[in-house]
Amino acid sequence: MRIAVKLLFAGERQLCDQIFEGIASLKDQCFAEVTANSVAVLLSFGEAIAKSKRSPEKLFVLLDMYEIMRELQPEVETIFEVKACSEMRESALGLTRHLAQTAKETFGDFEEAVEKDATKTTVADGTVHPLTSYVINYVKFLFDYQTTLKQLFQDFKPGDDSNSELASVTMHIMQALQTNLDGKSKQYKDPALMYLFLMNNIHYMVRSVRRSEAKDLLGDDWIQRHRRIVQQNANQYRRVAWAKVWFLKPNSAYKCPSSKMSCIFVQIL
User: The Exocyst complex subunit Exo70 C-terminal domain covers which part of the protein (predicted)?
Assistant: First the structure.
């Protein structure tokens, strides 16, 4: 698209201006007729992508195309500024809007897919679930498109803080992941493994955010809040795991009051 607009169409415009210099209506009509089919083919390809079935992986293709169309918009408006080219100009702008809308809807689809992921396979040792690593890598990849995403959000809500919008979207994705992990943790019959699973996965989320650009958007409050959740699950894991040890003791130890038992756990840990 860049080559077509910057070289081919710009060259055709210049050639028509030179050949039909002084005859404005003729040079504009000639340029429109010469470029109409080529423009239609290029835009139809973009429309086909925008109309195709949405999937998380296609979001990056949509963002690439949206970024190119936004970049070329000033040149499209200049090259096709005459009345004879108004339909082509509007079609190009329409494609940009369509790509933006589809990308925005794909965001929503991804968040919903994460929250409702129904994978029943549990991680035997309570380590990081494949869904967690997939979502985190996806979010990291999204931040390679941070400038494009901010522009996209700005197009939908002019005047709003695009940083806040991107932060909100990222938080929703993270919350969807955490909700799903909570559900997956309940598949463990062993409570100790359940807490270990939550501790490992949320710790992975926190560590990944701290090492990425997402840290600046989500902020220290998000990180500290989720570190506390990690610690809570770690404490619960230790409590349940040590309980198994105490239950192997003679009956006298087994009958210790719960408050006393808690004190013993604290001292041991």
Answer: 1-246
Determine whether 115 is exposed, middle or buried from the number of CB atoms within 10 Å of its CB (0-12, 13-18, 19+): middle
The torsion region of residue 184 among left (phi > 0), alpha (psi -120 to 50) and beta comes to alpha
Q: Which element (helix H / strand E) includes 231?
A: helix 214-247
Q: Go through the chain and tell me how many residues it has.
A: 269
Helix and strand numbers (H, E) in the chain are 12, 0
Per-residue pLDDT of the chain (269 residues; tens, 9 = 90+): 888 888 888 898 888 888 888 887 888 899 899 999 999 999 999 999 999 998 998 999 999 999 999 999 999 999 999 888 999 999 999 999 999 999 989 988 998 999 888 877 778 888 999 999 999 999 999 888 988 998 888 877 766 666 788 888 899 999 999 999 999 999 999 999 999 999 999 999 999 999 988 888 889 999 999 999 999 999 999 988 877 666 565 554 444 444 443 333 333 33
- Tell me the C-alpha distance between 4 and 97, whole Å: 20
CA–CA separation, 214 vs 146, rounded Å? 10
Q: How many angstroms separate the CA atoms of 165 and 169, rounded?
A: 6
Domain residue ranges of the chain, discontinuous segments joined by +: 2-103, 120-268
- What CA–CA distance (Å, rounded) separates 115 from 157? 26
Q: What is the pTM of this model?
A: 0.79
- Residue 122 DSSP class: P
Element (H or E) spanning 63, and its range?
A: helix 59-79
- What distance in Å separates the CA atoms of residue 52 and residue 228, rounded to the nearest whole number? 42
